[in-house]
Specification:
16-stranded antiparallel sheet; mainly beta; 47% strand; Lipocalin
């Protein structure tokens, strides 16, 4: 969940360093070139307006081609210019660099920058820009068969131009009815770049902005990352409260605070001791430096929404609750494996830094969610309280992460479709193929939770949102399921553990070529290299192979004269994430794993 922030901080930091190096000197046209020049090296960069995945690119003159990864990553050689497109829509080009954005292409032409930002943001598969921009295969294929044009020069007030772009979103998880407007697109782009610049600051130097009392008084600052969730409230000129969840350990303490502006230090005094740390401002928050590990704490951001929203709630005790907000009635409901676990009304609280506040109908307590400037995704710190008389007791500290809104599942949700769960942190993978009445499952996790490849098949049925899998041999499982675009949320009936299954999409000829890393945890296979060529040949860990696309849209890698086959599922809306299963003659002999585009 937090991988993107660390990546983007590294992108910005490296970009700034590269820019300084590039400006550091020049050469004389009359000088003699060195005899032994260093050959050009391959580099990687990232396309940013939020990271943009699914952009086609070509680096010239090296000839490197590909599709940007979910993190916006592309490859280029020293001296290359990189050209970006979506089908027949030419997005633009810029000199190869560690970070490229619409501003790198449009430069001082704000109209060009706005057009590119509007185009990319409109194409985002799930419509949640904060978790990255993803351009899916269907959009690229539609764009390949369209008239297209140079995006920076399009007249986006033209009905025909608008209709052409909106047509590209017809198979998105969230189809667009209108283009993202100019002000919103530029606002998002500028805020994104400002956040990345702020995120690149990891320490307080002598010229950093000093923090004064007014910069903290009456404000909240928080941090989510590295197994830790922390929220500070500086409620008056002398009092503070800290609430945290540190790798499952819940912390709640209060005390007094003071700032030494000249020394740039903040002192927190609480029962049993005090802490003094360095402090400086970043524009989006503050950096606290204990001399060992400087950390950014983001100021809370207003919660503003004029539409229904859905969030996944995750706390130390509950990983399986979906929160639905009705913007018109201000009602909310919480859903998990037990059904609807809570209902009530939500409010927006606070004048300068509003957060949303949940009040359940049974008056058993309340919950609060605080959004943070510069934080990944549309993600908030979530606090849950129970009320006993006049006393409010903190019972849970966790996160609330935006997801696409839920729709009812039906037979068409499953029949003929495939789903994939990838949890690389826990080395687990789970794949399901459905026909009209049967299913096939591949996983590398046994019923005891241990690693072990498991193949099963059987029949499935649906009653409301309860999905039942009856495996051959008698085993039966029932899940509650909710459709969220390219996501399928499932929970064991009666459970508070929620899983996110990703729908898969057909692999397409035009975008599958490239280099991939394959990892199979049960076989201790780490980063086996799979190279897919455009002539239907390939190589896997140095062994020659051939590939094709089957009727379900999965890629199949075969080895001449051998029975083994590698079957590949692509995550819908993602250009870099795949599931991989090596199959053998014995149907029960499988090797499930992950595949990621290099």
């Amino acid at each position: 969940m937090f991988k993107k922030k660390a990546l983007l901080r590294a992108i910005v930091a490296t970009s700034l360093t590269s820019a300084l190096v590039a400006c550091g000197g020049g050469s004389s046209s009359g000088s003699t070139p060195p005899v032994n020049q260093t050959p050009p090296t391959e580099n990687t960069g990232n396309f940013i307006d939020s990271p943009v995945g699914g952009l086609q690119y070509e680096a010239k003159p090296s000839g490197i081609t590909g599709v940007t990864g979910d993190d916006g990553r592309f490859r280029f050689m020293d001296g290359d210019a990189v050209y970006f497109k979506v089908g027949n829509y030419f997005v633009g080009s810029a000199d190869g660099a560690k970070m490229i954005s619409p501003k790198s292409i449009g430069l001082t032409n704000e109209d060009a920058v706005a057009n590119i930002a509007r185009f990319l943001q409109t194409l985002d598969d799930d419509g949640i820009l904060e978790n990255g921009i993803t351009i899916n295969n269907a959009a690229r294929e539609t764009a390949r068969n369209s008239t297209g044009g140079e995006v920076s020069a399009l007249d986006l007030s033209s009905e025909s131009a608008k209709a052409g772009i909106l047509e590209l979103t017809e198979k998105n998880s969230v189809q667009r009815a209108e283009l993202v407007d100019r002000a919103s697109a530029l606002g998002h782009l500028n805020q994104t770049l400002a956040d990345f610049e702020a995120a690149s600051k990891v320490s307080c130097s002598s010229d950093d902005a000093a923090v004064e009392n007014d910069d903290l008084t009456g404000k909240f600052f928080g941090r989510i990352g590295n197994g830790e969730i922390t929220l500070f409230e500086f409620s008056s000129t002398t009092e503070f409260k800290e609430i945290a969840n540190d790798e499952g350990k819940q912390i709640e303490r209060s005390g007094s605070w003071s700032i030494d502006g000249q020394a740039k230090t903040l002192t927190l005094t609480f029962e049993g001791g005090s802490d003094t740390v360095g402090v400086c401002g970043t524009g989006q928050g503050i950096i606290l430096d204990d001399g060992e590990t400087p950390m950014i704490f983001w100021e809370t951001a207003p919660f503003t929404s004029s539409q229904d929203e859905t969030f996944q709630i995750a706390t130390g005790t509950d990983q399986g609750t979906l929160l639905q907000l009705n913007s018109e009635t201000k009602a909310y409901s919480m859903l998990n494996g037990t059904g609807t676990s809570e209902q009530g009304t939500y409010y927006v609280e606070g004048e300068t830094n509003p957060f949303f506040y949940l009040s359940p109908d049974d008056n058993s307590g309340f919950s609060e969610a605080f959004f943070l400037k510069g934080q990944d995704n549309r993600i908030a710190i979530y606090l849950q309280y129970t009320t006993e008389g006049d006393v409010n007791n903190l019972t849970a500290v966790g996160t609330a992460t935006a997801t696409p809104n839920l729709t009812d599942v039906g037979p068409d949700t499953f029949a003929g479709n495939s789903f994939l769960l990838r949890n690389e942190g826990e080395n687990s993978v789970y794949m399901l193929d459905f026909t009209n009445s049967s299913f096939v499952r591949y996983t590398n996790e046994t019923d005891t939770g241990e690693q072990g490849a498991v193949f099963s098949k059987g029949t499935w049925s649906l009653a409301g949102n309860a999905l039942t899998l009856d495996a051959d041999g008698g085993a039966s499982e029932t899940f509650r399921a909710w459709d969220a675009g390219n996501l399928l949320f499932v929970a064991d009936e009666g459970s508070d553990i929620l899983a996110r299954l990703y729908k898969t999409q057909p692999v397409t000829l035009g975008t599958f070529t490239g280099e991939y890393n394959v990892n199979i945890p049960t076989e201790n296979v780490v980063n086996n290299k799979l190279v897919i060529n455009d002539n239907k040949t390939c190589s896997y860990d140095g062994t020659a192979c051939e590939w094709a696309i089957n009727t379900k849209g999965h890629a199949v890698v075969s080895f001449p004269g051998k029975p083994e086959q590698g079957h590949i599922w692509q995550v819908a809306g993602r250009s870099s994430a795949f599931g991989f299963v090596m199959k053998h003659e014995d149907a029960n002999d499988i090797e499930p794993g992950f595949m990621t585009r290099q």
